[in-house]
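hey
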């Protein structure tokens, strides 16, 4: 009986290491690239006292330069945390100069623990919405 148990465990280990993709979570799809348009904000001031817009640009730029996380406020005041793409951080770093500006962010969305983030792949300025 011990020998049978040892053989079964050994085969399971071989299968686990030889075919790791076979044991991946079912239903998990690769994230699809999407685009969102909104205002880049520093999350400290935005969450603390709803600071955003041109009046807050100087402070927001300083906060982001100091390491404050960034977010994207889209229509309906929905906020996404912006995260740096691990393969290429250029687009995320470009967002640091776009605080208080209207931008189009392209990337993939992730949700964990109720928090939604965008892994930034591209960022570009867009015309401010008409008031």
């Amino acid at each position: 009986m011990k020998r049978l148990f040892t053989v079964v465990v050994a085969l399971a280990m071989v299968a686990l290491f030889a075919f790791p993709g076979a044991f991946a979570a079912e239903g998990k799809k690769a994230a699809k690239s999407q685009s969102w348009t909104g205002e880049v904000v520093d999350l400290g001031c935005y969450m603390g006292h709803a600071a955003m817009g041109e009046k807050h640009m100087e402070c927001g730029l300083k906060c982001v330069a100091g390491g404050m996380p960034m977010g994207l406020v889209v229509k309906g005041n929905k906020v996404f945390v912006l995260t740096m793409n691990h393969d290429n951080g250029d687009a995320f770093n470009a967002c640091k100069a776009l605080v208080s500006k209207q931008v189009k962010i392209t990337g993939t969305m992730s949700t964990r623990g109720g928090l939604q983030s965008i892994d930034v792949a591209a960022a570009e300025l867009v015309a401010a919405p008409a008031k």
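Confidence is low (pLDDT under 50) at residues 21-28. The radius of gyration is 22 Å.
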